[in-house]
Amino acid sequence: MVFSNSIFLIRFLPAVLLIYFAAPRILRNAILFVASLIFYAWGEPVYVVLMIFSTVVDYTHGILVESNLKKGNRARARYFVIESMVINLALLGFFKYADFLIGNVNALFGSEIPLLHLALPIGISFYTFQTMSYTVDVYRGQAKVQRNIISFGAYVALFPQLIAGPIVQYKTVAEELDSRKENCDLFASGVMKFMCGFGKKVLLANNIGMLWDTVSSMAPGDTSVLAAWLGITAYCFQVYFDFSGYSDMAIGLGRMFGFHFLENFNYPFMSKSITEFWRRWHISLGSWFREYVYIPLGGNRVSLPKQVRNIAVVWLLTGFWHGANWNYVLWGVYFGVFLVIEKFFLAKYLKRLPKVVSHIYTLLIVWVSFVFFGLEDLSRAGEFIRSMFVPGAAGFVDTQAMYLLRNYAVILVILAFAATDLPKRITDLLLAGTAAADGDATKERTVAGSVAATERKLSGIPKESAGASGVSVTPSRGRLVFATVARTAYLVLVFLVAMAYVVDATYNPFLYFRF
């Protein structure tokens, strides 16, 4: 089951919400746990056992780590941390990488070891990282041990972010697991966030994905330079709006149930360096590798060769995490090389260049990288990159490329616009105009502060919190009413149109579904 599915939207989610809010607060984690197991079992019932096993393993190891720390036996506590990591990584390795390993052994040694052809448990890469971070954080003293196995199970199996993230570290939701406060404003904010993500995924990612499918299926000699660039541009947009849309839906669902998940994307295509791009793209994964791999290896506090080693390890693992194939490894290494170059040489020059030049540089590197991400056959990926820069039999432009450009020009413009912060900035300006019409003292409140205050209000965050400008802002009632009504009307329209697509269309892939 996925979020952009009519069964989830019309049956599962309304039923869970009704039961959840009708039940006493003491039962809500149990309801979430059971609902999450049903959600997970919908596609692969047998792997529910695997998830329950992972839950029990990390729950017991967390208790063992804490008890040994209390006794002053850090060495034994460390042993249980390592043991839990080995069990988790062994499960991930067996189900995700066994056939990859067997295939490479067969290729190297000419053996004929049969492949296992195991179905990959949905979301195993995400929940494995989450459960590993729990025992590590208990050992570090950054999280209190969870003694209620139902609450811990709800964290591990939590369906809003189970199958595709964002990766939620236990310490960020530990307090909310035990004492979260659901309220109408937070629920409404969650609904709007969900509808926004739903629109991204169904209306934008799905529609542009068909362009990539068309171009990627062309024979290498039939792909003109223009067609190749149209295709890879479509794929980059498809991955971004598919995954960021799903992340928005997950964050929105979390708010409905009283959780605050961190944002996972921050307009990555506006970046002016690869370093900046990876601070904005899949933020939860980057944070996880930085905190649990890069810093423990020494981070930036070691010698230059070791810093290069640390970056290499992180990006080799990042690529391998994405998939059991050499194209993903190459994709990770590719980014690692550019990050090393920027860190030790190129970054200072990029800062001096005009922003448009550094921006074009970044997009060029990212666009080429996604050829490796989208095409598992490395020889095919190489041919595709060649067709992007060297005209073949089809030349620079051919009739098929022009046909595709005419058909997809409008949506490509919409996607380019939606991938920037321009929609948000326009909304900020409109809100500022509304504030002036309401007679607010706009000179004393910045636009950024006003919008931040509105978002805090919708999210249930106290209005006394400082806004984006650092100024304490209390938005007027008129502005809040206007912002809420306008945003709600727009998102309801987006949701209804997207629902019509879901009911009518058969093309509804989710690219990160089995990562």
What report would you give on this structure?
- There is one protein chain.
- This protein is an all-alpha fold and 515 residues long.
- It is 71% helix and 0% strand.
- It is built from 19 helices and no strands.
- About 8% of the residues have low confidence.
> What can be said about the biggest beta sheet?
none
Question: How far is the first residue's CA from the last residue's CA?
Answer: 15 Å
Kindly provide the radius of gyration, computed on alpha-carbon positions and rounded to a whole number of angstroms. 24 Å
Decide which structural class fits the backbone. mainly alpha
Number of strands: 0
Q: Runs with pLDDT <50, length 5+? A: 435-473
Instruction: Give the percentage of residues in beta strands.
Output: under 5%
Counted by DSSP, the helix tally is 19
Explain briefly what this protein structure is.
The protein has 515 residues and is an all-alpha fold. It has helices spanning 6-22, 28-41, 48-70, 74-109, 124-140, 149-157, 170-179, 184-216, 225-256, 274-280, 283-294, 304-322, 326-352, 355-374, 378-389, 399-418, 422-437, 447-459, 477-504.
Keywords:
about 70% helix, globular, mainly alpha
Task: Draw up the topology in text.
Blueprint: H1 6-22, H2 28-41, H3 48-70, H4 74-109, H5 124-140, H6 149-157, H7 170-179, H8 184-216, H9 225-256, H10 274-280, H11 283-294, H12 304-322, H13 326-352, H14 355-374, H15 378-389, H16 399-418, H17 422-437, H18 447-459, H19 477-504
Helix pairs in contact: 1-2, 2-6, 3-4, 3-5, 3-6, 4-5, 6-7, 8-9, 8-16, 8-18, 8-19, 9-14, 9-15, 9-16, 11-12, 12-13, 13-14, 14-15, 17-18
